[in-house]
Amino acid sequence: MAEGATNQRIDTVAALRDAAITTLLAFGLFLPLIGFHTVTNIRNELELDTRWSLLFSIVAVVGVARLAYSFLLAPWLERIKQRPVATTAPAWRASFGKWFVPFCIGFVIVYPIIIIAATGFGGALKWVDNFGIQILIYVMLGWGLNIVVGLAGLLDLGYVAFYAVGAYAYALLAKEFGFSFWILLPLAGVMSSFWGILLGFPVLRLRGDYLAIVTLAFGEIIRIVLVNWVDVTNGYAGISGIPRPSFFGIPFNANEDGFAATFGLEFSPIYRTIFLYYLILALALLTAFVTVRLRRLPVGRAWEALREDEIACRSLGINTTHTKLTAFGMGAMFAGFAGSFFAARQGFISPESFTFLESATILAIVVLGGMGSQIGVAIAAIAMIGGTEIMRELEFLKAIFGESFDPTQYRMLLFGFAMVIIMVLRPRGLISTRAPSVFLKEPKPVPVDLAKQGHG
Amino acid sequence: MEVFLQQLINGITLGSIYGLIAIGYTMVFGIIGMVNFAHGDVFMVAAFVALVAFLILTTWLGVSSVAVALFIVLIVAMLFTSLVNWIIERLAYRPLRGSFRLAPLISAIGMSIFLSNFVQVSQGPRNKAIPPMVQGEFVLFTQNDYAVTLSFKQLIIWGVTAVLLVCFWYLVARTRLGRAQRACEQDQRMAALVGVNVDQTISLTFVIAAALAAVAGTMYLMYYGVVSFSDGFVPGVKAFTAAVLGGIGSLPGAVIGGLLIGLIETMWSAYFSIDYKDVAAFSVLAITLIFLPQGLFGRPDVEKV
Predict the structure, then answer these.
(1) Hey, are the CB atoms on B105 and A415 less than 8 Å from each other?
(2) Class of A102-447 per CATH?
(3) Entry pTM
(4) Alpha-carbon span A101 to A115, nearest angstrom
(5) Which of A55, A171, A230, A252 has the smallest count of CB within 10 Å of its CB?
């Protein structure tokens, strides 16, 4: 009893000291850039403002958070650690795992109907577009990149280049030659795939961080070309007036031969949005389906072998050149599909949409989801993209922080922060078990800690 | 010829800035084998701190002597940026040491996004321009009405870079810290066994890297007179290119790589196309990694099974 009391007191002293140090560090850290604010005055000169109250409130929040960690969170984590770990998974988890995927697919299929029922035609547009289509594009890109990063273990930081190739291929060919979306979709995929293989050739010898940086350089080069090759791409101004996809030849407009008139409905922009929603859903599911099937084919097994150990892979007689190039090509093809969908949905594209930040976002989704896990990637895409989209909706924060507070400014700030936090807490990603593709009698999930990665 | 000489002077100036940032990449890569993706943004943060310090000194305290102001700004930026990088290492990279290889890289990318957006949110998205700190130039010679000049600020950048490189070389080659640092680079476990405090050494590596990036940031602000929250990414990638070109892990390589990248960029802008100057630097990166992955001065990476 007495001993426990002493421990408690020492803890308090240590906790207070930690909190004091943290507070001091936070003060030092935030002083220059939050304490002072550079503003341009009327004469176009820079002036300094001070924001002491903001600085002190942030520092106080950090200090209190540190105290709360020492007194509340740390003991709780300690207790959790001491709790005996169940060796067998509970029965509900097995059935949960079995029903989870069909349930999710069912949910996304009926999602627009639920939303329309809940908010009506007017309100549904935003929810289906911003949350449905936007997230599904990233789910698809995540699954596409998952082939390269998650399955083949090739770290690609320039994935957005293939997305851009797909988007520009659709935009230019549709505008110049008037080809329809359904012809250009596979064509854009083929073109992106071609570029994937072309850029894959020189980097065959590289791996790990170096590969990441070179692919980043390639991605940036393609973006700079898009910016500067004004004759073809119209530079920063971008391409506008890109033809929209039609419903098997019936355009979505208010005319006599439009979709609404043909089916005897009242015209509303929501039909096009719902059509696009199901289109990207179908494309995303196609990506997932192809990936699942490929994992069972020799080429998919070769990818996974390559990820685990390149040298062992080569010693077994697997042609690593082919294996790598098929992974690059396949991943790029899905990016091309997504890109042409993106161009068709937006009706306008510019190089601004294909910056490095997009590549980093897609890679973050794949890694945070747990590399190689399809479900994990989807969950990460929903969390990261949906989370940043929700920031747009948080109007009530204005009541707390004042009228000038704009939550959308903080989207990328929180995004970067979340990347660091998730990596620190779960470096293996959200879903860190891996379903083996070859097994004896019954599949047992492999904790990824055991499946040591070779060089990827 | 005169254009060439002028570009040579400009290129060496730009290259000095890249070289200072490149040392940070090369040291961190050497000691923990990770590409510190956020280093370019640390450089940008340093430039902003220098901006704030400069404004405090000139508009509030009325320091009129440029030399004094520049010196104080440099010290403040170095101290603060070191603190920032020390904290980043503690929070974002140390917990991931020994984790799988991608984890620190992703964490660093997240940190890079965080830092640039933090500056955007806290200081605003617009370019921040200050009146020129240092004016005046030497006219070296005039030929065909083209004056080849060496401005005072270029001279300051050369001088500061040279002095710092000497100090830094002394630190790494002659002091106890430098020895510990080189030991950790070779074998962390062995270094720990012979009594080197590995954690502290790695922390100090980040501090030194940040201090040099802070010098680069201050010089950048003085040279261009303008800085924005997005200025970290491209110089960061170019400095990384410099580190790779010189041979990653090699300190003289980083400096020479930086000078080469600076020269390639200015020459390319002068003789080919200024729009594609970033393509030149990125192509050098790709070509180096593909054909000469060990760089000019690096040790070849032997693959063991």
Answers:
(1) no
(2) mainly alpha
(3) 0.87
(4) 21
(5) A230
